[in-house]
Design a protein that fits this description.
17% strand; single chain; alpha+beta; 7-stranded mixed β-sheet; 20 helices; 643 residues; 6-stranded antiparallel β-barrel
Length: 643
């Protein structure tokens, strides 16, 4: 029997459907002829807790750190034992095994660690599926590879998992024990991703708190021109007191000029017209959808992920949702019309948008070279029953369908006009935009653009009808929301100064992954480090104190970039993982030396931030309140996710 082990049930079912023959359902598997397809349920295994290596490590003590396993152990996740037993039984009957994890680093790890943990020593092939359409899966089944080719990818993923365990276990124990010495009764959790995310919010809140508004002044003039009226704004020259953004810092020059302007005449000294064409936004990745759904419907990142899972699993209306890709397989283009007609049939708004689609158009969204382990979120073609969808489910489904429909609309065509007038020897500027073809834009509710200017000819005269000075103030940065924090995690390179580090972060996933970002935010809230205030996310006093008590590098994203560089060399150049882990352990020893009860006490006493719900600071991942550090109250007892 040939046994195919898929990463998840949906992939397993797609593979079974693509095999020749009649499928026969088994417990946790599907048999088709001489092939049986089974699956994992995400990670079936997790890193063993410290006391699995030494029972004495069940007690948290500084003098046992760093904890460095000499031989790494995995253990079944509590809810995975049943499926693991299914795979173990099937392996005993198999003559060959096919690894069908996702075609990425984590997918390679997830299935291969199960194969190795269960003791399989026979041949293993590799099946790479990125498109669940039956023809695409059939083609993939026809080009199996030797799984040994992907050993470097597996070693990189394994190194990442072990490094996250070492980092999270040791720093969490060090800061928790030191925190108890400082009078804090609760776990102080530290992680490679969650802590830099918390650092983003803490630093943003500090910027807001320390912000001092500065006044500046703008002068406007309403002008009559040959074929209409417009408002122009004074552009003060360098002889005036300006800030680094060209804003006027004193009112007197603007007020003096405003008195001279009414009735003054001038001319249009410069006119620039530029036609632009803007393609429709691409179909969604999960993170991009979370950003838009938060802005448009006020949904948290976790809520969007949960809704997408229901749309995918329960309603079967969308494709796999935990994708970081915004492109679709080229093969899907031919069937897009039929798919969208089915998807839109049950929704009045979608039917209206469908009527305007031109299915002869082919956008840049259809691109196999851009499709990785998964493609963008898209409708499956099944018609939604409005009676079975909640309002929020319908809202999210409409967004997903809309972004695919938009690929069959013309580009948005606009004409931008920039005009500069000279009046009493001073420059005044105006700009406007004319929509030549709305294209896809009516499908999207976007902010209002600059209104169009009246028809203008360079050199024509103008006359000032009115003028005035507006007193304004600089504004602090906005607090993070779910949308802006997810976007910051996606584009974390913007928050890094070093050009080499920025480049590395741009080339990889940023902080977290599509599957983990929402959970990271919720974890920080549950642990009392972040507080939700209406739609904003603010750092709590505890969260601010934790960042203040840690070495600065722990609360910043640069370490992720360094890890990705080294993991990339392991995966792509077959580098030895040993030096990577050895360098991490050396770094870890230095960080552990910075754990100091006095520093934590000072940080806790001087922290500024919001007040978190009292019980949450002492809650663990499972949500149970505990008085002190115990084995399962940190990331150490659970498998470090790819975070």
């Amino acid at each position: 029997m040939r046994l195919i082990i898929a990463e998840k049930p949906s992939l397993g079912r797609a593979i079974a459907d693509a095999l020749p023959g009649r499928p026969r359902r088994l417990d946790g598997a599907v048999a088709v002829g001489d092939t049986t397809v089974t699956w994992c349920l995400g990670h079936l295994l997790e890193q063993a807790p410290p006391d699995a290596y030494d029972p004495a490590l069940k007690q948290w003590r500084l003098d046992t750190l760093p904890i460095l396993p000499s031989r790494w152990q995995l253990m079944p996740r509590p809810k995975a034992r049943g499926q693991l037993a299914v795979i173990r039984k099937l392996l005993k009957e198999a003559r060959e095994v096919v690894h069908a994890g996702d075609p990425d680093r984590e997918g390679q790890l997830l299935v291969q660690e199960v194969i190795e943990h269960l003791g399989w020593t026979g041949p293993v092939s590799r099946l790479l599926v990125s498109d669940l359409n039956r023809p695409a899966v059939q083609r993939a089944l026809g080009r199996l590879e030797d799984n040994a080719r992907y050993a470097p990818l597996y070693r990189a993923a394994q190194s990442r998992a072990r490094a996250d365990w070492l980092y999270g276990i040791n720093l969490t124990r060090a800061w928790t024990v030191s925190g108890r010495q400082a009078g804090h009764d609760g776990v102080l959790s530290v992680g490679r991703v969650q802590t830099p995310v918390l650092g983003l919010v803490v630093r943003r809140d500090a910027e807001i708190r320390d912000f001092e508004p500065r006044p500046f002044y703008v002068l406007w003039a309403d002008l009559a021109v040959a074929r209409g009226r417009l408002r122009a704004w004074w552009a003060p020259g360098e002889g005036h007191p300006l800030d680094d953004q060209g804003r006027l810092l004193e009112r007197a020059p603007a007020a003096a000029l405003a008195e001279r302007l009414p009735g003054a005449e001038g001319r249009l000294s410069s006119l620039e017209r530029r036609d632009k064409r803007q393609a429709a936004p691409l179909p969604y990745s999960l993170s991009a959808l979370q950003v838009d759904a938060a802005r448009r419907h006020g949904l948290s990142a976790k809520a969007v992920l949960d809704i997408c899972q229901r749309l995918y699993e329960r309603h079967q209306l969308i494709t796999y949702p935990r994708s970081d890709c915004r492109y679709l397989p080229e093969e899907h283009f031919a069937g897009a019309r039929r798919t969208l007609e089915g998807a839109c049939a049950g929704d009045d708004t979608l039917r209206g948008w469908l009527a305007g689609a031109d299915f002869t158009k082919r956008s840049r969204a259809w691109n196999d070279k851009q499709v990785g382990a998964h493609h963008a979120l898209a409708p499956t073609g099944k018609t939604a029953d409005p009676a079975t969808l909640s309002r929020q489910e319908a809202d999210v489904f409409r967004l997903i369908a809309r972004n695919v429909l938009a690929q069959f609309y013309a580009p948005l065509a606009t004409r931008e006009v920039k005009a500069e007038f000279t009046i009493v020897e001073e420059r005044f500027r105006a700009r406007g935009q004319e929509i030549l073809d709305p294209g896809w834009k009516p499908l999207f509710t976007t902010r209002d653009e600059a209104p169009p200017l009246p028809p203008l000819d360079e050199g024509e005269t103008c006359r000032v009808e009115d003028a005035g000075v507006e007193d304004r103030e600089t504004r602090p940065p906005e607090p993070f929301t779910d949308a802006s924090l997810i976007k910051a995690m996606m584009n974390i390179a913007r928050y890094v100064d070093d050009p080499a580090v920025r480049r590395t972060l741009r080339e990889h996933d940023g902080l977290g992954t599509e599957a983990t970002r929402a959970g990271i935010i919720e974890t920080l809230v549950e642990r009392g480090y972040l507080v939700r205030q209406a739609k904003t996310l603010r750092a709590s006093r505890l969260g601010s104190a934790l960042i203040a008590s840690l070495p600065e590098a722990v609360g910043r994203p640069e370490r992720t970039a360094l890890w990705e560089q080294r993991l990339g060399a392991i995966a792509e150049q077959d580098d030895d993982p040993g030096p990577f882990l050895a360098a991490l352990i050396e770094d870890l020893r230095g960080l552990l030396g910075a754990a100091d009860a006095g520093r934590i006490r000072t940080a806790l006493a001087g922290a500024q931030g919001e007040t978190a719900p009292a019980a949450r600071g002492k809650r663990t991942q499972g949500g149970k309140k505990r008085a002190g550090p115990r084995r399962r109250s940190t990331t150490g007892a659970r498998r470090p996710k790819r975070t």
